[in-house]
């Protein structure tokens, strides 16, 4: 049995993060689909996001850079592979188009009473790439901070009574 490819076990190659956000599902989904929102919350604490190109549709791409607190720029690239408003987004995420180390993520937006439970399931091409992301780039902590920034952003919109 192979370790990669369709149908291969993923437990040693994945990271799963989730959070309940006190905001309507449609608003949380919109925060992922409009660049005016993404630039205000995307990324771990202390990072900023600058978009070079953005086209939200299946096959569309988001080309952007994240700047870390130390001033380092990190190139980023996403291609959306599935969009089911307001329930699910699947994407391929790497540093650049055709990045051989790109990873797949599935985001689900589930009703949780009046709130939204978001889950980010990320599967890396290999266990080694997953381990490197966790150990060297602090992917779990960064992902949790990113979801925290999203939660803070959309709950502020809700409390202000407007949608950005």
UniProtKB/TrEMBL annotation:
Provenance organism: Amycolatopsis jiangsuensis
Family membership: Belongs to the AHA1 family.
Any Pfam family the entry gives: AHSA1
Protein's recorded name: Uncharacterized protein YndB with AHSA1/START domain
InterPro entries on file: ASHA1/2-like_C, START-like_dom_sf
Activator of Hsp90 ATPase homologue 1/2-like C-terminal domain residues: 23-154
CDD domains recorded: SRPBCC_CalC_Aha1-like_1
């Amino acid at each position: 049995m192979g370790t990669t490819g369709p149908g291969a076990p993923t437990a040693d190659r994945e990271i799963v993060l989730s959070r309940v956000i006190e905001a309507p599902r449609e608003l949380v989904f919109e925060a992922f689909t409009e660049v005016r929102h993404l630039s205000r919350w995307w990324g771990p604490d202390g990072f900023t996001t600058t978009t070079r190109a953005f086209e939200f549709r299946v096959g569309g791409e988001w080309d952007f850079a994240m700047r870390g607190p130390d001033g380092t720029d990190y190139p980023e690239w996403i291609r959306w592979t599935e969009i089911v408003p307001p329930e699910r987004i699947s994407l391929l995420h790497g540093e650049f188009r055709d990045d051989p180390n790109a990873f797949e993520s599935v985001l689900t937006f589930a009703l949780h009473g009046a709130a939204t439970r978001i889950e980010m399931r990320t599967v890396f091409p290999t266990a080694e790439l997953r381990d490197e992301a966790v150990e060297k780039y602090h992917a779990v902590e960064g992902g949790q901070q990113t979801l925290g920034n999203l939660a803070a952003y959309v709950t502020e919109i809700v409390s202000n009574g407007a949608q950005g």
